[in-house]
Amino acid sequence: GAVVSQHPSRVICKSGTSVKIECRSLDFQATTMFWYRQFPKQSLMLMATSNEGSKATYEQGVEKDKFLINHASLTLSTLTVTSAHPEDSSFYICSASPGKNEQYFGPGTRLTVT
Amino acid sequence: AQKVTQAQTEISVVEKEDVTLDCVYETRDTTYYLFWYKQPPSGELVFLIRRNSFDEQNEISGRYSWNFQKSTSSFNFTITASQVVDSAVYFCALSEAHTDKLIFGTGTRLQVFP
Q1: Predicted pLDDT at A1
Q2: Among B43, B47, B91, beta carbon nearest to A43
Q3: What's the rounded Cα separation, in Å, for the pair A106 and B63?
């Protein structure tokens, strides 16, 4: 149980285009979903917290207009990187929480912007 | 403010050696949770353990053991008889009871050589 999927696992896009990453909790309802970014050889940095049906809460320094988060249902959250630039190339990981301080992580999406 | 410190950036051992990964945390809350995750080269985060602040019992799971010491704010992780498959980056993390947000340490890269 407690499986979280992410799609796509890898994506390469051209500078200036937008990319959407999906995060799904497959066998439980996630009251909260989190989006993290991880640069090579660095730790995971929380980007934003999203609750179903409400606006995401962004961490300091994360541009909400650049990283659009939608949490349309209790099993799906999407992160859209708008007008991507090479510096947005990173490993993006989502996690889903059913509450009770539990978090289950997706396998990650490696984004490369050329 | 909450913080997780993993002072060891990289550790190299030879197979069958025991190795301890250190984790020191800071929090003002009396109720909190501590975690360890393994991140192999594939990138996916593998959950290893969750501990709440009221449970100071040490835990053993196969070759893995954890030592939680509230007096020193530490939650150290020991791998006994290490194997090459243990090579990965290991992250310690903290979440406070009033929020599901995870604060990650900077990670320790463990390399186990045959």
Answers
A1: 65
A2: B91
A3: 26
CB contact under 8 A, B43 and A103: no
User: What 3-state DSSP class applies to B46?
Assistant: strand
Residue A67 · residue A80 · CB < 8 Å: yes
Which helix (H) or strand (E) covers residue B76, if one does? strand B74-79
Task: List pLDDT tens digits, range B49-101.
Answer: 999 999 888 889 999 999 999 999 999 999 999 999 999 999 999 998 777 88
Q: Say whether the peptide bond before residue B40 is cis (omega within 30 degrees of 0).
A: no
Residues 83-102 of B with CB under 8 A from A: 91, 95, 97, 100-102
Quote the minimal CA–CA distance from B76 to chain A in Å.
Answer: 18
Q: Is A21 on the interface with B (CB under 8 A)?
A: no
- Range A71-91 average pLDDT: 94
**Cβ proximity of B49 and B66 under 8 Å:** yes
